[in-house]
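Let's practice the habit of predicting before peeking. Look at the sequence and jot down your guess about where helices and strands might fall. Then scroll down.
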Amino acid sequence: MIDRVALYLQDAHDLRDGLDYVKYAEERGFEAVWQAESRLVRDAIVPMAAYAAVTDEIKVGSGVINNWTRNIGLLAATFLTLDDLAPDRIICGIGAWWDPLAKNVGIDRKSPLTAMEETVIVLRRLLNLERVSFDGEFVHVNNIELDVVHGRREPRNVPIYIGATGPKMMALTGRIADGVVLNYCVPPKYNIQAIDQLKVGLKESGRTLDELDRPQLVVCSVDDDGDKAIDTSRELLTQYLAQQPHIAKASGVSMDVVAEIQSILGWPATHEQIMQAKHLVPDELVHKITASGTPADARAKVQEYLDNGATCPILYPVGGNVKKLIDTFATK
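Done guessing? Here is the structure:
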C-alpha cells in the first residue's frame, strides 16, 4: 500500500489546467505538489503561489529551484511570502543546477558544495527571523533580517530539501538539510548508494535516517495501453538524457548513447528531433528508470523505489490523462 504520494508538475500542461490537477490531487489524498524549475521554460514560484491560493491542505514545494540565480535576501523573502499565503504548507526544494545550461546563462558553478551549504545555512537563519551577518565564499550579507513590519513576526516553518544526485551532495544533504529530493530517471537500486552517502552526513549531524525525509521524483506514464505509455516515456528520456547528462550518468546509460542522441537533438530540442532520436532509447531502459505501463505496472515500479529507501513518490505525469495517474495512486 502506497500511503504517501505527491504530484510533480513541469511545463507540459497549460498552467491553468495545473490548478485543476492540484485541486484534484488534494481531493484524492495527495500530500504535496512539487513544481519544477529546470529548463528555461517555467519558473517555479508563480505556479507555487497559484497552487497555494486554490488549495487548503496540500503542501507546495519547489522541485527544485537552483541556488545560483536568486540573491539570498530575495530567496528568503520569496519563501516568507509563500508561507504567508499558505502557512506551514511550503517546502523549499533547492538544487545545484546543471551545465551546460548554467554556463550558457553566465553562471560559473565552481565549488557547488560550498555554495549550497552557504545558501542553506543563511536561508534557514533568515526564515527563522534572525538578524544575520555572513561573509562566505558565495554568500555575503551584513546585519540583515526579513523586514516584517506587517504580519507574522515569527519563525517560519519552511523545511529545506536539497535535490541531490552525486555522492558528495548527498552527504552534504544528510548533514544540513531537512530532506532530500531524490532524482528521477535512475533505477531503484541507485537509492542504496545514495542513502549510504546520506548516512555519512547524517552521522556528522547526529541524526538518523528516519529524521530525513526522502521523497523521490519518478517519471510516470500510465495508460490502459501499456505500450503507448512506454513510448510516451521514451520521448521524455530522449530529451533528458541529452540535456542533463548527470542524470544519464546516475542511471547508468552509456555515454556513447548519450552522445548519439546529442548529435541529433539541438538546444532546445524540437519535437521532430526527439522523434528522430527516440529509437536509441530501448524498452529495457524505460522499464528500468521509469514507472511506465498499465496502472498495475506503474504502481509496482513505484513500490520498488519505496522498497529501496524513498519515503514518498513525487509522480511526474508524462503525457496522457493526468487525472488517471492521480486516480491510480489516490489514497482517498
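How did you do? The chain has a mean pLDDT of 94.
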